[in-house]
Amino acid sequence: MEHNIPKGFKFAGVHCGIKRKRKDIGIIYSDSPCNAAGVFTKNVVKAAPLIYDRRILDDNPENIRAIVVNSGIANACTGEKGLKNAIEMAEKTAAEFNLSSNSVLVASTGLIGVQLPMEKVKLGIEMAKNFLMDSPVDFAQSIMTTDTVQKISSVKIDLNDKKINILGIAKGSGMIHPNMATMLSFLLTDAYISPNVLKTLLQLSVSETYNMIDVDGDTSTNDMVIILANGASETSEILPKTEMFEKFLEALNQINTELAKKIVKDGEGATKLIEVRVLNAPTKEDAKKIAKSIVSSNLVKTAIYGEDANWGRIFAAAGYSGASFDPMKIDLYISNTHENIKVAENGKEYPFNEEKAKKILSADHVLLLLDMKQGKALATAWGSDLTEKYIEINGRYRT
Length: 399
What we know:
33% of the residues lie in helices and 28% in strands. By secondary structure, the protein is an alpha+beta fold.
């Protein structure tokens, strides 16, 4: 599959021995300095790379040239040595590419509480330098842990008669929960956007995409989304409150929504993608709370897995979401891409065919639609079902 690659970016992914077989070191490199912004986990326990990157982005958001990532070990809960190792990863990458160390960002994903084998990591960085290419595929493979598929999305848009490319590469499969999931996402564009505007765009997009997904209710220590803009398209600067800003945000949301759904669909042990749409809620905040609460409910997840139209669990999850609403006004529909059925009306059961409901729930993409009939706000969240396979994967994660 061809991707729209922003001008000036190259990629590498290699195997250096952190993991037994699969690629485990990846590098994104820009020919020219990038403006950058990031969004990080709200978990109080933060991995060393996040602590390092936040310092860099606070001090030097206008001169980022590379991102180096390892998979297999999270470099979380590793103390001062872990932070030194994150810094050493940046310094080694900088030395190999003749850059300043404060122009390199670092990310890690994998097992928590284990120190990085730095000799292998440094060897991997040396190797990666020799395998830079235009394709992001090897890089996407190098950041995978329990992921079963690589996750890449891109789009090309016209801004003032010039082409702008946006590329997103993500990983994530377990420890996925709103307020960032156990996921890494790297967004690249050849548009010219200042760090402050990039941060605004990223925060707006994350709130509607990555912060609206759930696999298992666990918020990770390593979650981050980084966006780099190198201006290589030579278009005019994208500024707030302009048509260019809105068009870019729409494209960014398209990419992040696609990546977020790929993460959920690839959830550990998942067999179904669950989409929750809340319509006509009193406020946007209420709509988001309800959608996220439903998609995060283990009782809802297991009911969908079991193809059981137990709609009371959906109402219960909405009720403890913290949103303010009248439950006696809600209609609930269950559907897939082919069929639709109403199962509740005005807060109580609506007569429905159980066999038809089970058939709808047997699809690999199930939509739960709540019409609140109490306003005009709406929100969408995505999640996966919860299966025996999830327990099997996570019960043996260290072995």
